[in-house]
Amino acid sequence: MSVISGQDALLEAIAAQILGKDKGLHLMPFYISGYLDSLLMGVVICQMATYWHFVRRDRKHIVGLTLLAVLATTAASVLIIIWMAHLFVWGFGIYLPFTESVWLVRYMSLEIATILLVQMVYIDRACRLYAHWWPALLITPVTLGTAAIGSISLNYFVVNFKHITTDTVSSPTISKLVYTWLSLIILTDFVIMTIIVYGLQRVKAGFAHTQAESRFRRVITRCFESQTPAFINAVICIIAWNRQFEVALAFVVLQTKIYSIGLLITLNLRIHAPVSSTANDTHRSDPQGGISHSGPHRSRSSPSPEPDFHLQHVQYTPPSPTDDQHTSIYMQDRQQQLGVKVARSPTGWDSADGYSEEKDDRSTMGLTRDKF
């Protein structure tokens, strides 16, 4: 057990009186935060290992922003490990370390950087989705303002408060800064989510609607593409902050992982998942059920509804068994039909997930790699 003396002894007595009343509520969130952060960091590592195989194919600025976001997330996890060791190992048996603000400020600095980097990637995604710069003009000021408010809040917190107490959390200035910062995060995520979801619906891109698993995977992909998990976590943070600071702390600590995981999953699903025939312009179903090969240049300003890329079934009238000539024609037609199905494999739809290496330069949202 650590030994403290002097003025810190008085602060320790106050902290013990406040936190010792309900250890489960006041101390357990710190422990759970460390566990969940380590768990999600494993997901980040796995997703980053998958994305690393395709780094050379992606745009350099996307790769740079992604790597910086992952590095900031990793640094945040290392900081949390040291923080937990300070609380439960070096400061074992005393309550005062749980009230120190310096660790939270250090973590929040990394969190602000991570959120800014990830949101910049989504802004780039929105611009490429619409092939225009107006999403950046709309979202960038809010994003930069959010980072600025967060930095101002941390600076004010460091200068005026060394320990986190009930009075600190309920301070009018701190409350205004925190609520403003969280509200701007929610606003930015909501604008990004709305713009991307509308853009994806506008271009009619994504998976085909012919299989139940494709619909489910489409929903999951759209969820990550539009940064929905980060938006939900930000809403939970502001609600929990209003109710109980210790509970909000657990969700705040997880924000860096949620943003990074959402970004990496979006990039990886874009590479591996099959695309609909709207995106694959060179292979479309013609009205007679065959495969027509149209040119690769289609107007992006006037998207058409998603056609079903599966072969349409052609009904044949069974020939008379006594008519040898009709039977021969029928067998030739059946062989031609089977030949069309076999001929599909070189087009890039022959892999296990419906998407071969020949087509892995297309996005899951029906856009080429240049569109992300």
UniProtKB/TrEMBL annotation:
Compositional bias annotation for Polar residues: 327-338
Domain DUF6534: 186-270
Coiled coil regions in record: none
Domain of life: Eukaryota
Alphabetically ordered keywords of this record: Membrane, Transmembrane, Transmembrane helix
InterPro entries given in the database record: DUF6534 (IPR045339)
Transmembrane helix as UniProt keyword: yes
Transmembrane segments: 30-50, 62-84, 104-123, 135-158, 178-198
KW Repeat (keyword) present: no
Compositional bias ranges of the Basic and acidic residues kind: 356-372
Region (Disordered): 277-372
Protein name: DUF6534 domain-containing protein
Taxonomic source organism: Dioszegia hungarica
